Amino acid sequence: MLQMLKEGFRWYGDKDCVPLSHIRQSGAQSVFSSLHDIPYGEVWPVEAIKSHQEKIAKYGLEWDTVESVPVSEDIKLRKGDYLRHIENYKQTIRNLAECGIKNIIYNFMPVLDWIRTDLHYLLPDGSRCLRFDPVQFAAFDLFILERESAKSEYSADMQSKARKFFDSLGAAQKKSFERSIIDVFPGCKMGLEIEDVRKMLSKYDGIDAPKLKEHLYLFLKEVAPVAEECGSILAIHPDDPPFAVLGLPRIASRLEDFQELFEACPSKANTICFCTGSLSAGIQNKLDDMAVKLADRIYIAHLRSTQVEPDGSFFEAGHLEGRVPMARVVNTLLKIQEKRLASGGNRIVFRPDHGREMADDLQKPPADNPGYSYIGRMKGLAEIRGLERGIIAASDGTLS
């Protein structure tokens, strides 16, 4: 018999404009959260984990999913302090498990965590959402970052359109546009300047997709056995967007990437955070097919959708609209969970990923974490909850 997936909601900690009391009111049971104040590569102490956990528990919520334990650039590059960082990562896995927290999300995206060009894109109904525009991104790459090889990667027509967009911005708009791309790391502000990004990019000279995949596999070879011993899982988040940017390699963008990953590291602790939104921005990806083929590796999901336009732009669609066939995806997840529960496994935990700024949230100051206003995500959660109930009712005959 099908059962509801476990509902989650992301919380960025004490500085989050969405308090835990509101998350409790949404009906979610699980909290996806992280210790954002701890620098990348350092150990998460048990005391700090328990303190965060207790704050969440006071509201009748459970911190069972870490989003994320960041992987340092040193680990991705296998340079500098990477050996110490890997040992620290292992200890953090152990410390989380000691506190009963065993779902760990991470990503292996080089330099920038995720990329959008407009954090408050106005939609016809008056709500706002995140958007990626390839012309605007080319303008950033060509005229702000001034990446050396950028001109050879964009057509003359694209460069002309990018110049027109860039020249339409005033000085303050250009600075705001720059910050919206280089300083949107989840839960924290790195304070990066454009020269910092140039230096970070230069470190990836000579590192192509096969080499970065090798670095990922070597990382997992070290940490996955520890996770397995602890009964924990490591869920890689797909690249966002799932196509090449800034000349950087993309290694978690399509079905074949994940199949290669699980073949290279068959540990049962090696899993995917099935983010339908990130993956749907790649027109090569068929989300319902991916869910079926990666079923054994899906324990955590982010559910949202994107609308991809003919020029390659994409924006956050409603949770039940856009490129993601959400009914088929959710139906597949429910069946995966049913099979897993029958063999003594755990429920799949998901959260409604991102949400439009709408209604009263439009009157509030812009959130420090774009895409994570309250009402839009609560709407998405309610829609997915209703979809699940409809699927379950149809499957058990209570609709008849």
Account of the 3D structure:
This protein has one domain: Divalent-metal-dependent TIM barrel enzymes (TIM Barrel, Alpha-Beta Barrel), CATH 3.20.20. 42% of the residues lie in helices and 14% in strands. The protein is built from 14 helices and twelve strands. It has helices at 20-25, 46-57, 73-77, 82-98, 134-144, 156-167, 171-182, 194-202, 209-230, 255-264, 276-280, 287-293, 326-342, 374-396; strands spanning 6-10, 30-33, 62-67, 103-106, 118-122, 128-132, 233-236, 270-275, 298-303, 305-308, 314-317, 349-352. Strands 1-2-3-4-7-8-9-12 form an eight-stranded parallel barrel, surrounded by five helices. A four-stranded antiparallel beta sheet has the order 5-6-11-10. Helix 5 packs across helix 6 and helix 12 runs parallel beside helix 13. The protein is globular and about 60 Å long.
